[in-house]
Predict the structure of Acyl-coenzyme A dehydrogenase.
Amino acid sequence: MLTLILLIVAAVGLLAVMRREAGALPALAVLALTCLASLFFASTLLGILLLAGALAVAAAGLPALRGKWLTPRLFAMFKKVSPKVSDTERTALEAGSVAWDGELFTGKPDWQALLAFKDEGISDEERAFLDNQCAVAAGMCNAWDIAKERADLPQALWDHLKQERYFGMIIPKEYGGLGFSAKAQSLVLQKLSISETLMVTVGVPNSLGPGELLLKYGTDQQKNHYLPRLADGREIPCFGLTGPRAGSDATSLPDTGVVCKQVIDGKEVLGVRLNFEKRWITMAPIATVVGLAFRLFDPEHLLGDEEDRGITLALIPRDTAGMEIGRRHHPIGSPFLNGPIKGKDVFAPLDTIIGGTEMIGQGWRMLVECLSIGRCITLPSGATGTARYAIGWSGGFARIRRQFNVPVAEMEGIQEPLARMTALGYIAQAAVYQTANTIDRGEKPAVPSAILKSQLTEFQRVILSDAMDIHGGKAVTLGPRNYLGIGYSANPVAITVEGANIMTRNLMIFGQGAIRCHPYVLDELAAKDADDIKAFDKAFFGHAGLIFGNAARAFTLGLGIGKSAVPFDAVAAPYAQEIGRLSAGFGLCADAAMASLGSTLKQREMLSARLGDVLSNLYLASMVIKQWHEGDKVEDEAALVHYSCQFLLGRAEQALDELFDNLPNRALARVLRIVVMPRGKRVKRPHDDLARTIAQAVSRNTALRDKLLRETWEADDGSQPNFLAHYNALLATQERAESLYRKVNKAYAKGELPADALHPEQRVLEAAKAGLISEEDATFMREREAQVLELLTVDDFEYDAFVTDKSKVLRHHAA
């Protein structure tokens, strides 16, 4: 019995030391004490085993001992098996900064580090722009008009965008721009997401493109010339990166520039002769200045000894000789301006290189550093704004659309997708806002940018699909009244551009995060490259302590032992503790995968994707918790927090479960499953009661609906109809209408109204005649039903309206 007690004491003591990553000396103390007690009072065999364990800990844990024999051998082995990091990969890894994503890799996230990113909101000037200028822009948009009738924004809208300097949101005021914060940029794009084309048109010039590149790297002359002209729309920019053979693998672009001399106006000018073919370039058809990425060569050594000077960026005026520009692509579902650019023997002076000759060969680094911020804002904000509108439209439609004498919002088949899309929209709002807030606090979130871009655009896909299902025939019939169908068909654009989601999920999130965000891996690789054995010893054994710490934390927390204190209320605290548990499991599994697969993990994309899924869901859940913690809480919002966190953490557990099923080393997989999930999956799927509560709240005139629809265009004050405003107006009188519906339908069911009163308007008329309702109520219902019918109505057209070539029309009933 005493032997068993001593064994338990040793195990518990070691787990406590490991959880705290306290180091070798406390572990030796535990082993030494239990060893002596065992030798003198219990089992000699156990004492010998504990002594052997103590010797092993001393040999590996004490620097003076391990430095003589263990570290040199480990260092030599590490040099052989560690993956080679190319210059391109190293540039990507060094770009941006690490914040909360790094905390999740530690397995012991410090919530105070996240809460330290205080949210000071947006300025009065930014708020006024959102409430006024953005409302004007949104009010000029009709999806059908833009997509089908003009394939462009209206001229008045273009004039408004230029006059109000939308294209200069990121440009400081000293250059004539708006100088907006990242949060304000995001909220502007969310409001403008009533039109996919409008959001892209404003978002792209404020994301990856000449403006941001000039701000960070341009010469003073380039900034002073271009930035004021970009801010007020005198110059329309585009950026040419991708081409027929270089899409996701942008570093392999075959476009070339050759350093040469050319006589211009009688003077010999040193410059670059460019040959390129670009496609999928947003704003290209109307751009006045083209940012261009190309591979620069100097075969005549006009700049120095190097011939291959690397990827370089330049800014080329549209009217430069040899440039072919102006044709359009036809993006699916959305006519935002996008097209190819070609150039043959285009000569550009050296002063067109962004940043001047000092930035030659720095193009990839420049692009990656800009992308880390741009990808956090433009497409994630577009997805979030789309979610806001889709939730508002769908909740309103589900409440006014009646079948079987009840609003379809009362049917559980509608409540399920309505709740799901609402939760995904809520998650998106929290994630994009809180990440933009970290940018405003000085961070350049590289890994979160990949998480937000891929996850939120995938959410957008689900949200739009659910919205289509809820609307049914209303949404599948195109025309000016259809506010949903064109955006639905355009969704693949967001999935594909700025790093296709397949590539981002499979290669970038974990692939970049495993090195960039890990507390020790980057230091280990740096020590290898510098051949610094002392630095390696410090990093490697710190890493080893982290592995043991995560194993102990994951196992004990998985058993429900030793939950850490978290600075949140009763709603959020359990989810923060679950994030801590899964973070420890994730950290352990990440290290196990890297150790067991080594450099081949790059090729095991499905495993890398699942590890990325765990990180993504933990990150998104953390943003939800922070938003709840700091926000103005409204009735029924807690249900959304519960649903969102259960959804996200359940997905994280599922990804870990699939990882265990597919790790090639089956023994390792079984051990990891026992350590990380000793009690199996812990997170349950969101309960149906939550779905019912959310669906009811979002389909009625409630504080929760109001909160979710903030930063949408809700006023019916534009040149185009605002369907969201119409739904909101009907929901404001819904309780009165419901009472009258029940009274009239009950009378009809009892036979108190004529049997042929089949339409609601007829029943209301007959009920008023019979004195069952007042004339005032009858007038109210007739006016309301007219509004409802208008919202339920779909468009129809002339027989040959959609035929481009009228000579091909088939007249099936010509007689």
